[in-house]
Amino acid sequence: MTLNKVSIGQTVTVKKLSGQGATKRRIMDMGITKGVSVTVQKVAPLGDPIELTVRGYQLSIRKADAEMVEVE
């Protein structure tokens, strides 16, 4: 399952990042790495952006980037 399929309020653990190059680096710079817990706080009406809580910080991530984050 990918991060963009997670329901609001659900907490999941990152299993794998499948992006490459600058996209993967941008996701990792946000603190989204393998093994970290992520909670989905809010999703915009059209699905972009997705607001998350990662390591106690509030973040917004694009839907296209969320598709590259595999979770369990």
Give an overview of the whole structure.
- With 72 residues, this protein is an alpha+beta fold.
- The protein has one domain (3-71): SH3 type barrels (Roll).
- The protein contains two helices and five strands.
- Strands 4-3-2-1-5 form a five-stranded antiparallel beta sheet.
- Strand 2 and strand 3 (50-54) form a beta hairpin.
- The longest helix has 9 residues, at 21-29.
- The termini are close together.
- The model has no long low-confidence stretch (mean pLDDT 91).
- Pfam families: FeoA.
- This is FeoA domain protein.
- InterPro entries: Fe-transptr_FeoA-like, FeoA, FeoA_core_dom, Transcriptional_repressor_C.
- GO terms for molecular function: transition metal ion binding.
- Residues 1-72 form the Ferrous iron transporter FeoA-like domain.
Q: Which short descriptors sum up this protein?
A:
SH3 type barrels, five-stranded antiparallel β-sheet, 2 helices, 5 strands
